[in-house]
Amino acid sequence: MKSRSESLIRLKKFQVDEKRRQVVQIEMMIADFERMATELDQQIEIEHTKTGISDVAHFAYSTFAKAALQRRDNLLASANDMKSKLESAQDALAEALEDLKKVELLDQREHQREKDEQNKIEQSEYDEIARLRFRSGQ
Length: 138
Description:
Distance between the termini: 46 Å
Structural class: mainly alpha
Strand content: under 5%
Number of helices: 2
Low-confidence stretches: none
Keywords: Bacterial flagellum biogenesis, Bacterial flagellum protein export, Cell membrane, Cell projection, Chemotaxis, Cilium, Coiled coil, Flagellum, Membrane, Protein transport, Transport
Protein name: Flagellar FliJ protein
Shape: rod-shaped
Main location: membrane
Order of helices and strands: HH
Number of strands: 0
InterPro entries: Flag_assembly_chemotaxis_eff, Flagell_FliJ
Mean pLDDT: 92
Pfam family, one: FliJ
């Protein structure tokens, strides 16, 4: 029984670690997307300063700035999409942690039950020894 519960605990810990890695990976992706979008914003501002045109509807608006705006918008949309995936991954992590706690509690109870049974046996043996000594002392 011990090896099975220990194996189950190891499996649950592995699952928790995997869910944590997924959460961290998604968080890093979101941060990268947002960082790249910020960099594009800076490049767009530089382009606006260079050309003197910041109106997107202007006929002479920079094609580089238009493309950068589109890339920035795509990155921000991807970051928002990843935020919903992050929420799902965090929920899965919380569920995996709950499962691990349940298995650990069951294992702890089983160990306590075994310990209590062993203590009961030992106490019974001590009682028997005491009875024998008491009888032999009479």
